[in-house]
Amino acid sequence: MLDRPLAPPPVEVIVAVTQALHREARLLDNEDLDGWLAMLGKDVSYRLELKSRRFRADRSPPFPLGPGVIFNEDLGRLKMRVDRLKSGFVWAEDPPNYIRRAVSNVEVLATRADNEVRVHSVLGMHRNRIDGTTRLLTAGRTDLWRSEGSAWLLAAREIVLDHSVLPDSNLNAFF
Amino acid sequence: MRFERIGREPDYSRYMDLKEGWLDRRIFSDADIYEEELYRIFARSWLFVAHESQIPNSGDFLTTHMGEDAVIVARQPDGSIRVMLNSCPHRGNKVCFADAGNTRRFVCNYHGWAFDTAGDLKGMHEEYCYDAGDIDFKNHGLKNVAKVGNYKGLVFATFNSDAPSLEAWLGDFRWYLDMILDNEEGGTEFIGGCIKSVISANWKFGVENFIGDAYHAGWTHDSGTRSMNNGQPFPPIDMDNSYHASVNGHGWEFGTEGVGDLFLLGRPKVMDYYNKIRPKMAERLGEMRSKIFGSVASASIFPNVSFLPGISTFRQWQPKGPMQFELKTWVIVNKNMPDDIKEEVTKGVMQTFGPGGTFEMDDGENWENCTTVNRGVVTRHERLHYRCGIGRQIEHDTLPGIVYRGQYNDANQRGFYQRWLDMMTHDEFGKMPARPEPQLGNVGETRNLPGLFAL
């Protein structure tokens, strides 16, 4: 059977998922990390892969074990990161940094599964650190969101950071 | 409060007294001192440029920097490795903007001058515009460095034709390097790519942190240790059986318990792997080195490479001005490890010492703020304290180098700044003192040498 293009998801789904992205950004900005964890599926996969600048015509083979990933997290690892941030011993976050996330270019696409949608979005992250330094990071994100009961949960996120050299000393923030 | 406006010191020895244990803060931000570092240290030292596994095939290349000079490292058809300036001899533009890849030619974007992977000029756009006698192709290739060397997979280069051999430069430190480079048949390789990040700090703060500063770990990384270890803080250090060892500005601080850094990596399968090969490692490197490997440890190779044996992060602090460096990090593994163990190591490194790692995230901010705060016009007059453990030097029957007892110590940092001072004050490379006198000078291969007692 030939694949036919999928019909777009219902407008209610598009609205609900878009709202979920905005809510997620707000929870993270407000450091409501437990609230954020509650938006994640049990099997969530959260990844940020390395990139390197290559010539378009480059003919070298890919790395046998992949290029490496800066984040390659499951729910347990994400909880551990949250525990670390909540430990009271993260000197670099005290007093708190100011982080503001802007979510944009949201596209909600249907998948073969009725309760799942593929979501493309762009994230701009403004970080104002304790010493006053300000950094702007941008990233593209491709997510899988799943409807469970009345909520949409994040099931997978692939982050593509738009920087070949990180303009900051760490990535101590969720994208 | 009284202070005088001070200018540049007439002599670099005025910037520190390592017998007393203090440093002048100006060496971390002064632009003139930084320029002098580029000439006297970066242009004259052996500098790490690649791991040979990054460029296995003919035509493979990567781009990097030696000091602030952009270079290309390229594998030749005969298997050798060449290192050359990434700068066209015509107007100076870079001839390669990729991080890495495989190619036959480097072609300048400006006028199409084309070079082969050895750096030889092969042609250019509209070649007819040059009359006979205008240009000698032979003398207009990409400038090659003076020397290239390889120690057990690590490729170094130097601009300095008077530099000693790479083996002599590393000297007795080879005995320590073997623990990460030669602990198993087959040697090592880098896997995956390179992460680059910009840190607004002086390059020396990164080097000195890895060369000897075990002391910061329990406090700076308290949150990371606790979150990865069910709320338990950093384990106490055994001050009687842990050490600092310094050789000509290179340094390794370490315990002898064999498991601390492997534990901090947080990947039990990797711990199991090393425990399995440890008896073989003891046969290969001797009992002492098999107990040092995997312990809480960190190391730097002078001037700007660092790594954590056991945690397997390998990194270079590339200077970008007095108050900024670019940090490049890789993952180093044993070539003969099974793929699933290599994957585990990679995951562990990213989760601990990648830019999103639970430990790495605490460090950069400290170094940035040390750098900017030290620059204050009044603050810079105050000395910094580097005296920890200054009376704990020992003679050890196994360990080469200048050895201090107790890994909470500033000894290796003092050793690093002593070498810094030696290079800043000696015009003639050959007249710099050896610190200490080489004990393994006549030893060709240090793998088979369990320790000094065997001499």
TrEMBL record, chain A:
Pfam families: Ring_hydroxyl_B (PF00866). This is Aromatic-ring-hydroxylating dioxygenase. CDD domains: ring_hydroxylating_dioxygenases_beta (cd00667). Gene3D superfamilies: 3.10.450.50. Keywords: Dioxygenase, Oxidoreductase. InterPro entries: NTF2-like_dom_sf, Rng_hydr_dOase-bsu. It comes from Sphingobium chungbukense. SUPFAM superfamilies: NTF2-like. GO terms for biological process: 3-phenylpropionate catabolic process. The keyword Oxidoreductase applies. Signal peptide: none annotated. It comes from the Bacteria. Belongs to the bacterial ring-hydroxylating dioxygenase beta subunit family. GO terms for molecular function: dioxygenase activity. The keyword tRNA processing does not apply.
TrEMBL record, chain B:
Keywords: 2Fe-2S, Aromatic hydrocarbons catabolism, Dioxygenase, Iron, Iron-sulfur, Metal-binding, NAD, Oxidoreductase. Residues 47-122 form the Rieske domain. GO terms for molecular function: 2 iron, 2 sulfur cluster binding; dioxygenase activity; iron ion binding. InterPro entries: ARHD_Rieske_2Fe_2S (IPR015881), RHO_NdoB-like_C (IPR043266), Rieske_2Fe-2S (IPR017941), Rieske_2Fe-2S_sf (IPR036922), Ring_hydroxy_dOase_asu_C_dom (IPR015879), Rng_hydr_dOase-A (IPR001663). Belongs to the bacterial ring-hydroxylating dioxygenase alpha subunit family. This is Ribosomal subunit interface protein. It comes from Novosphingobium guangzhouense.
